[in-house]
């Protein structure tokens, strides 16, 4: 591994970490930075190694969520602080309820998604459609909502948010963008919807990425481990910073700034790829 290769690993980890859990689509950003500028597939000499690297940096981002929400995750599995009698508490069954729709649709249409939906055109559609959903959610958000929290989510809301999460099966739509928008449209505050989104992301992303990781263990040769390690650490650090910053801001700035950014990103991609100007 030379310095340039390690820099590429760090930069791709940075892009993954900063964009995976905010509603701007990490897929769109990785297309710009990797496919157009860094060319990691050409650098690594193999599509399989490049795909494995993307799984590794996604695991780094997932670890950041686990660290941020560690006390809450412990509560979900019965190892954390006990709630007072008669008070609400988010349960593991709420999370499972929210995961059911995406798990079923992802299992049924995995081959179709991998074969037909991973292209610049579909990402552009996802970026713009997701942006309009976010704008619509902000417009319809309850203005005088009580100071509710993630613990006030009902099973019905959890399931319906899970349906919104299915939109993220379309590349470029953004898991956090679709689920936070769904939560807001269902009456949750932006922060409560964001918290539930991040907690739901842990099992579904850990399951998918973990399975892919196990299938690709043969790629982890001694000469490639430094490249993977730098990417993983970079993704973890920048995902942790991004999540903390996003959660501190989402209650004040809502989704509109991210929607505008997505539309600008879609325009940039269209101009670069299709020579519109």
Automatic annotation (TrEMBL):
Chief location of this protein within or outside the cell: membrane
Entry-linked Pfam families: BacA
Note: Bacitracin is thought to be involved in the inhibition of peptidoglycan synthesis by sequestering undecaprenyl diphosphate, thereby reducing the pool of lipid carrier available.
A GO molecular-function descriptor: undecaprenyl-diphosphatase activity
Any Gene Ontology biological process: response to antibiotic
Membrane-topology descriptor: Multi-pass membrane protein
Listed name of the protein: Undecaprenyl-diphosphatase
Keyword field: Antibiotic resistance, Cell membrane, Cell shape, Cell wall biogenesis/degradation, Hydrolase, Membrane, Peptidoglycan synthesis, Transmembrane, Transmembrane helix
InterPro entries given in the database record: UppP
Keyword Cytoplasm: no
Ranges in a coiled coil: none
Record's function text: Catalyzes the dephosphorylation of undecaprenyl diphosphate (UPP). Confers resistance to bacitracin.
Compartments where located: Cell membrane
Gene Ontology CC annotations of this record: plasma membrane
Family: Belongs to the UppP family.
EC number from the UniProt entry: 3.6.1.27
Name of the gene this protein is made from: uppP
Superkingdom of origin organism: Bacteria
Catalytic reaction(s) noted: di-trans,octa-cis-undecaprenyl diphosphate + H2O = di-trans,octa-cis-undecaprenyl phosphate + phosphate + H(+)
Stretches that traverse the bilayer: 51-71, 92-109, 115-136, 157-173, 193-214, 226-247, 259-276
Keyword Transmembrane helix: yes
Class of enzymatic activity (EC top level): hydrolase
């Amino acid at each position: 591994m030379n310095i340039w290769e390690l820099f590429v690993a760090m930069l791709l980890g940075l892009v993954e970490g900063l964009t995976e859990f905010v509603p701007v689509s990490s897929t769109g950003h990785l297309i710009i930075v990797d496919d157009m500028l860094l060319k990691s597939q050409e650098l690594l000499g193999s599509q399989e190694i490049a795909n494995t690297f993307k799984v590794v940096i996604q695991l780094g981002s997932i670890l950041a969520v686990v660290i941020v929400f560690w006390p809450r995750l412990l509560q979900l599995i019965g190892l954390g602080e006990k709630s007072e009698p008669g008070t609400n508490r988010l349960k593991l069954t709420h999370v499972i309820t929210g995961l059911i729709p995406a798990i079923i649709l992802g299992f049924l249409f995995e081959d179709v998604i991998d074969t037909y939906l991973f292209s610049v055109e579909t990402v552009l559609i996802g970026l713009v459609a997701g942006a309009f959903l976010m704008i619509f959610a902000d417009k319809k958000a309850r203005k005088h909502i009580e100071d509710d929290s993630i613990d006030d989510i009902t099973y019905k809301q959890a399931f319906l948010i899970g349906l919104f999460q299915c939109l993220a099966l379309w590349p470029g739509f953004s898991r956090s963008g679709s689920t936070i928008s769904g939560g807001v449209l269902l009456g949750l505050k932006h922060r409560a919807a964001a918290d539930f989104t991040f907690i739901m992301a842990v099992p579904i992303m850990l399951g998918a990425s973990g399975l892919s990781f196990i299938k690709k263990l043969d790629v982890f040769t001694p000469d490639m481990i430094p490249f993977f390690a730098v990417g993983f650490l970079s993704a973890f650090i920048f995902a942790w910073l991004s999540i903390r910053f996003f959660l501190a801001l989402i209650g004040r700035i809502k989704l509109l700034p991210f929607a505008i950014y997505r539309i600008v990103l879609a325009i940039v991609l269209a101009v670069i790829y299709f020579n519109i100007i």
